[in-house]
Amino acid sequence: MTNGLLEDDEMRSTLSPEQYRVLRQKGTEPPFSGKLLTNHRPGSYCCAACGRLVFTSETKYDDSSGWPSFSKPATAEVVILRSDNSFNLQRTEVCCANCGSHLGHLFKESPSQDHYCINSVALGFINNSTGEITY
Prior knowledge:
By secondary structure, the protein is mostly beta strands. It has two helices and ten strands.
């Protein structure tokens, strides 16, 4: 770890190839393919790379986009927002503030409504009832 960020070699050895592609290479999983998309159990969502809490089930909602959607992060400090102009689109990238991994994108639905569109493979789910973590 350097400056609080995990190095790529550390991540490559602990993540699946799909997780690495999304988290470290800023990929996107296919819509409607993520196993956490339809998860409605009470709990928390952590970064799949470092385990830091990033979202909670209280802010998760179904927007039919094909990816898990959240209205806000667990706290403002757990994510970093960056300008993303890839593919000739103006978007806001959402990254884990702890390890720098790409989680997804933030879209403004209205001046007062944020839509965090997050890759399921970039998250782990911590079940409130059992404490079990699933990726």
